[in-house]
Amino acid sequence: MQLEPGKNHTQLTIDFREYLDGLFSYAVVLSRNRTEAEDLVQETCLRALRAMERLRPDSNIKSWLFTILRNIWLNQLRHSRSSPNAVDVEGDENPVHRIVDTTAKDPYSIYLGNIEREHVRDAIQQLPLEFREIILLREYEELSYEEIAGLLGCPVGTVMSRLARARSKLRDFLLASPPEKRIAGGAIETLAWDPARDG
Amino acid sequence: MRACGENCARILSYLDGRLRGQELDDFRSHLEECSNCLAKVETERALSQLLHRSRPLYSAPAELRGRVAAVVEEHATSALARNGVAQGVLRLRSGWADKAWRVARLRLLAASLAVAAMLLAFVPHFVRQARAADYVETAVAAHRNYLDGKLSPELQTNSPEQVTAWFNGKVPFAFRLPRAQVTLQSLPAYQLTGATLVKYRGKPAALVTYQKLTERISLLVASTDSAVVAGGDEVRAGNLIFHYRTDQRFKVVTWSNHGLSYALVSSVSGSARESCMVCHQSMADYRNFIPGP
Question: I need a surface site. Which of A75, A90, A163, B54 has the fewest CB within 10 A?
Fold first, then answer.
């Protein structure tokens, strides 16, 4: 989302709807807990609204929102002194949303798509936090390497190498999944790469 | 020609369109000669396509959308109330706020009058903050007296039902501790230890005491008619807003719910959910309040 040019700090236009799925996904990836994720997103929006007047007109709102969410989560983690290991992300969302999201597709495609998505989610949630996080930010939210580096507070080179390792690990998890989860048009099999195959 | 391993490291950059000029030409040339790297490019491309097809990773639930919409609307309305009279220019919009904005414009006159009424009635913001600080001060003083042995619980019990019965008729509000409904074998040991009465603004208030290991905790409860909670670091948890502050080295968490104001005082930090656990650990819904990861 961009700010409208020429507007001063108190005349921002933010459409939070544009970011809710992304923020919620990031919160789930960080906390691995849907209830906590909802609280994180709500608190993020609240703090963003309060801090909006201090925002520079040329700010990247998406990165800013994700940074707020990450800082809140880190603060809460410090307060609770808990580890991010408890997972309750399964059995999750309202199926109505899936239907609304996919009304343009035929039922079989919807079915395959849902299976595939579940499969990908499962694999991502098996990754270590730093890998889950970077996969979400880059592959789902399409933040640039520079934006991710700013958000995570690390060099761009670290972002690139971490992303490469995260993708490699994710591919391993996807390929290691049970065969019954690989029915989505053989998509998972295309991830197999055997360096010995082609010499 | 670059070594194959070096080119492999460029595959993501290539797929991201970050290679330019000679670097891009060199990489393409390498792909024409190296089936190994070409296969790797295809698998990486397939992975990206798979991930992109599964967007969004999670969809924000309708309840969350409603909660955020409410936050936006509340902020838009309060912003208008704060600035509308003086400037009339603050525009705060979102998809929901478009509606909120229309509603808020209709409310502008009412909000302006409300602000004017507040100013005329000399009830500015700092009065609310001062009253909140007063409630915290009372809670901390009671806790300190409890720690120093100057204030002993008149009722010493670990039974919530006995505490509820004991306060019945002693305080000018309905106060009930949740009954124990589950076994607590695996839960944090917030042990109810007793209860007593304290005065707040000339009226009886309830002080309930707990213990967690060696840490003593007190919970001051008074009616929202007299006790105000505000300020500090605000944290929302569900429909509640918790206010965190440190006062005289004590950690104080205040919140209000169902007409009662609560002030939890201890020497340990805790999350909003942990605050809830002090009372709710024995309720059937305790799982909703277990601190998350």
Answer: A90
Coil, strand or helix at A129: helix
Residue A38 phi/psi, 5-degree rounding, is -60, -45
Can you name the CATH fold of A2-80? Rna Polymerase Sigma Factor; Chain: A (1.10.1740)
CA–CA gap between residue B133 and residue B18 (Å, rounded): 56
Most B CBs within 10 Å, among A65, A193, A194, to test the B interface? A193
Q: Is the pTM of this model over 0.90?
A: no
**How does pLDDT run across A5-39, given as a tens digit for each residue?**
334 434 455 788 889 999 999 999 999 999 999 99
- CB–CB of A174 and B271 under 8 A? no
What is the enclosing helix (H) or strand (E) of B66? helix B62-83
Interface test with A, best of B14, B37, B54, B98 (most A CBs within 10 A): B54
Residues 6+ positions from A197 with CB-CB distance below 8 Å: B39
* ipTM, two decimals: 0.79
| pLDDT tens digit sequence for B2-60 | 556 666 668 888 998 888 999 899 999 988 988 888 999 999 999 999 999 888 899 99
Note whether B58 contacts A24, CB cutoff 8 Å. yes
**Spans of all domains in chain A:** 2-80, 107-198
Q: What residue ranges in chain B does DSSP mark as E strands? A: 155-156, 191-200, 203-212, 215-223, 233-237, 240-247, 250-257, 260-266
Q: Are B119 and B86 contacting, i.e. CB atoms less than 8 angstroms apart?
A: no
Quick check: bond before B56 cis, omega within 30? yes
Q: What is the CATH number of domain A107-198?
A: 1.10.10.10
